C-alpha cells in the first residue's frame, strides 16, 4: 500500500527514515491522513511529515494524532507551529554500515510476541528508547538469556527500502561489561545483511561512549539530526479532518 509523495530535491531515504518506512516496507502499519503518516500508537510513537510540510500537513498531523496527543518527530527542517508544545528535544546522530563485521551469535534467541512482557521489563530497567507492546512486529529481535531470564536484546525498528535500523539495544546492569550488546548488534546486522539490506542506527549525540563503540564496529557518521516530542494543540476543533483521521485509524485495524 505504499504511495508516492513528493520529497525534497536530492533527498535520501535516510533523510526522513520514518516516512520512507511508512511509504515503503512498513506501509502496512501506516495510518494516514493527506500526506501525513504515523505508526499505530502501540507500535511506535513516530509520526512522519512530508519533507517540506505546509500548514495543511500540520493540520492533518494534528487531526491524525488527536487533540492533546503527544507524538515523536524527526527530520524537521523548520520548527513546529507555535501552538504545538515541544516537551522533549534531543540532538542525535545517524550512523550507517561502513564495513561492520556482522556475524551470527550462537547464544542469541529470536524474540517474539510471547516475549514482550520480559522485553518491556528489560526496557523499563535500561531505558534504551521507545519500546511498546507491538514494537516487536517491526522486525527481527534477538535476545540473550541467563538462567532463563532475558538480560540483553537488540532488534530492528525503522525500515526504509534497502535499509533497516538497529534499535532497542539494551543490557541488564547485572551483565554489563561482557560485550553482549556488541554481539547482538553484530548479529542483527548479520540478519539485515542476509536480506540484502544495509544496517543503520541512531544514537544520542551526547552518548559519546556509544558512538565510539559503534564507530569501532564499522559504522560511520552519516548525518546529525534532532528528535522531538510535541503535543498537539488541545483545542483542535472537531472537523471533517478529525473524522477522516478516525476513518484512517479504523482502516489500519483491518
From TrEMBL:
The keyword Acyltransferase applies. The lineage of its organism: Bacteria, Bacillati, Actinomycetota, Actinomycetes, Kitasatosporales. Residues 106-239 form the N-acetyltransferase domain. GO terms for molecular function: acyltransferase activity. SUPFAM superfamilies: Acyl-CoA N-acyltransferases (Nat) (SSF55729). Pfam families: FR47. The keyword ATP-binding does not apply. Its EC number is 2.3.1.-. This is GNAT family N-acetyltransferase. PROSITE patterns: GNAT. Signal peptide: none annotated. It comes from Streptomyces sp. 900116325. Keywords: Acyltransferase, Transferase.
